[in-house]
Specification:
alpha/beta; 7-stranded parallel beta sheet; about 45% helix; Rossmann fold; about 15% strand; 27 helices; disordered N terminus; Fumarase C, Chain B, domain 1; about 650 residues
């Protein structure tokens, strides 16, 4: 028998004789899980915001899904990654359907680029848009799949290469979407997805889609998420960075190049070209090239230093781009019997013109202006320095209930840092009891003899220590770094001295490296930030996590630098108010890779002994789980040889 909606509270649902225990083959009563579930249930009932830290092993997914389903309200669940989205929809929801004994009204939604555009696929059969045998072969796979798929989600096509260029020509990105004017609108996968969402009680999205949608709510093109009164954010420690991305302004030379190439291609296919339009897009291309060539040339990410002087000196260059965009849009509007493809082209030209004016004419003190060069791309950015006021108004002020949860939200047992950064006031708070015996399962080792990581001799000494540790752990380790430079330097020093296979981030796709690590006995993976979170390798295969230094954000990063400056201007202490709490959360994320089940054992190593020698180190210790701690390498050796 299943449980009827509303007929059972979460305490009975999670109890030792409740519906979950009867259906779950490995059921175990978890104090943290039921405490969290009851807190979520009460927050939804009382229309209050809630922040919950629930460590690995708590079972937090079911702890928020069950009360969300039992509430009978429409609720959005937002995850940190698409992988977690798929896990919820394809694993957790079907399991709960078995527990409840009925079909649950749940759907998932991803960003537009994850879905196929039927019209683009049909056009590609008639038009010369595919290049090379690989694109033609990939397109045949896509075309056959489109005829049978229900959702149109690219993740369904297992045989399509991850880097397929054919997919980029047929996906449903907004750039060429004609909306309701499209002949395939009623059959469009996005239209069908939105209809499912409007009929669903639980809508599973990811943070990027949620905040992209929230930022679009005020525009005519509008958002795609239906109205709801509650949202649950899983992996909520990522929200400040994601929100800053979508409430900022971004412009690149590639965006403008793609626009004029799309105009040239579609005008040729739909036969609405003219000498005036050709001249306008040629002028746009030349003006764009001149403007971006005049920008600072250094590779990487840096503040847009001397922005006011640049604007003054190169006013003619950015105005030429803006005027060319304005003229191009005007000429497109004059096309008689305009095909539906013109609608998104005109919209894009207008949006790019607005971005040009904002980035080169506005001096809004709430934003930090910066740029980044990557390969052929040059990206200009304006990022909100502080998103707290935006989120207080647009998110927390609009929703009855917002639940924030993650394994890493508290700093020293307090949520003050996260609440202040996100603009969340008056929320209920819970640190769920741990489900693991960290003092028995994990040993934290901090070597005292190594020099300060900022000193020249650190790398050589640390390399010797890592070699020694990996020999005792027999590989089976992640060696994590705060920079690519440190990662490569360490790998080059010790890879050939190891008797175990080594993997290096950047030599293959992240998912492929993880799969190779899981399937290769005694492997050692050298990696950076993207492997600090969202990675799950339970069992003996991962028995040691080594971190090179305390993960303080680079103070010269333009966004970090601007946030530090703002706190200082408000007479605050940026180190204790921002840099230290952020690093404490990041360290918890990195160490969180090791203990993923009650059977796991392993050693956590921090090569940066400032944690024991500086007064602020206590904040890190107070934020981490209750690991057993040592500074003695012999204790590490004994731990591995038990």
């Amino acid at each position: 028998m299943g449980v009827e909606t509303r007929a059972t509270g979460v305490r009975q649902f999670f109890s030792p004789r409740g519906p979950l225990a009867q259906r779950h083959p490995q059921y175990e009563f978890r104090r943290g899980q039921i405490a969290m579930a009851e807190a979520v249930e009460a927050a939804l009932r009382d229309r209050r915001h809630l922040i919950v830290e629930a460590g690995t092993g708590t079972g937090k997914t079911l702890a928020y899904l069950a009360p969300a389903i039992l509430s009978g309200c429409r609720i959005v669940v937002s995850t940190g990654t698409k992988n977690l989205q798929e896990q919820l929809f394809y694993k957790d929801v079907p399991f709960l359907e078995g527990v409840f004994g009925r079909k649950l009204n749940v759907c998932y939604m991803k960003g537009r680029a994850n879905y196929a555009c039927r019209q683009k696929i049909y056009d590609a059969e008639r038009q010369a848009v595919l290049e090379g045998l690989e694109e033609v072969a990939d397109f045949q796979i896509i075309r056959a799949w489109e005829a049978v798929t229900e959702f149109g989600d690219r993740a369904e096509i297992r045989q399509l290469p991850e880097d397929s260029t054919a997919w980029a020509k047929v996906d449903a990105r907004r750039d060429l979407c004609a909306g309701q004017k499209c002949p395939q609108f009623e059959r469009c996968f996005l239209t069908l997805m939105q209809r499912r969402a409007h009929e669903s009680d639980i809508i599973i999205v990811n943070h990027h889609l949620f905040f992209a949608d929230l930022a679009l709510k005020d525009e005519d093109f509008g958002g795609i998420l239906p109205e709801c009164r509650a949202v649950v954010f899983d992996e909520a420690h990522e929200l400040e960075e994601v929100a800053g991305q979508y409430f900022g302004v971004s412009l690149s030379n590639l965006q403008i190049q793609e626009l004029w190439r799309d105009i040239a291609r579609i005008s040729r296919i739909r036969n609405f070209g003219s000498p005036e339009l050709d001249l306008a897009i040629d002028t746009l291309g030349q003006a764009t090239e001149a403007l971006f060539a005049a920008l600072p040339q250094g590779e990487g990410r840096a503040g847009f230093s001397g922005r006011e002087a640049f604007v003054k000196r190169h006013r003619g260059k950015y105005r030429a781009v803006a005027e060319a965009l304005e003229l191009t849009a005007a000429l497109l509007r004059l096309v008689e019997q305009a095909p539906e493809e013109l609608i998104p082209l005109v919209r894009r030209a207008g949006e790019l013109e607005q971005k040009i004016h904002f980035l080169f004419q506005e001096t809004d003190p709430r934003f930090v202006y910066w740029m980044e060069r990557r390969g052929r791309g040059c990206y200009l950015q304006a990022t909100p320095i502080d998103v707290s006021a935006i989120l207080a108004e647009r998110l927390f002020g609009q929703m009855d209930t917002v639940v924030l949860t993650s394994a890493t939200l508290a700093v020293g047992g307090s949520f003050d840092f996260v609440q202040r950064r996100l603009g969340l006031e008056g929320a209920r708070a819970l640190i769920a009891p741990d489900n693991f015996d960290y003092a028995r399962q994990a040993l934290l080792y901090v070597p005292q003899h190594l020099p300060d990581p900022r000193e020249p001799g650190f790398l050589a000494a640390a390399a010797e220590e890592v070699l020694r540790l990996l020999r005792h752990s027999r590989g089976r380790a992640f060696v994590l770094f705060t920079s690519y430079q440190q990662m490569r330097a360490m790998h080059d020093r010790i890879a050939f001295a190891l008797d175990y296979p080594t993997l290096l981030q950047g030599t293959g796709p992240r998912s492929a490296l993880l799969e190779e690590f899981r399937s290769t006995p005694h492997a050692v993976l050298f990696a950076t930030a993207s492997f600090w979170q969202g990675v799950d390798v339970p069992g003996d295969q991962l028995s040691c996590v080594i971190i090179d230094r305390l993960p303080f954000a680079v103070p010269s990063d333009p966004v970090v630098e601007a946030r530090i400056r703002l706190i200082r201007e408000k007479q605050g202490n940026p180190f204790y108010e921002y840099q230290l709490p952020q690093a404490a959360i990041a360290l918890k994320q990195g160490f969180g890779r090791l203990i993923r089940s009650k059977a796991d054992r392993g050693v956590l190593v921090l090569l940066d002994n400032r944690i024991t020698k500086q007064r602020y180190g206590q904040v890190f210790f107070d934020s981490l789980p209750a690991y057993r701690f040592t500074t003695d390498i012999e204790e590490v050796e004994r731990f591995f040889h038990v």
